[in-house]
């Protein structure tokens, strides 16, 4: 399943997604005749929550710029920041 925004609304992209056996959740732009009747709005709203989570992660400099050399150290920092975000303030 591919969830994207209106900027990725191209018929060619939709055809490629369907050719690979996946389902696309991409709202159509206003200038198209076809409507958004087949759009799964609940799943599209969930995409917004995921994008906000990544935006909050990037508020921490160590995550945004990746100062660590080793992958395991960077993963530890990301895990720690996720814990900070998950804990109630």
UniProtKB/TrEMBL annotation:
Residue stretches making up the Transposase DDE domain: 3-87
Superkingdom per UniProt: Bacteria
UniProt cross-references to InterPro entries, sorted A to Z: Tnp_DDE_dom (IPR025668)
One Pfam match: DDE_Tnp_1_2
Protein name (record): Transposase IS4 family protein
Organism per entry: Pseudomonas fluorescens
């Amino acid at each position: 399943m591919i969830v994207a925004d209106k900027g990725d609304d191209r018929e060619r992209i939709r055809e490629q997604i369907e050719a690979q056996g996946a389902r696309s959740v991409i709202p159509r732009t206003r200038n198209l005749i076809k409507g958004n009747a087949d759009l799964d709005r609940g799943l599209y709203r969930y995409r917004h929550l995921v994008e906000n989570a990544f935006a909050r992660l990037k508020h921490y400099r160590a995550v945004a710029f990746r100062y660590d050399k080793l992958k395991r150290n960077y993963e530890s920092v990301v895990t720690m920041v996720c814990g900070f975000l998950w804990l109630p303030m």
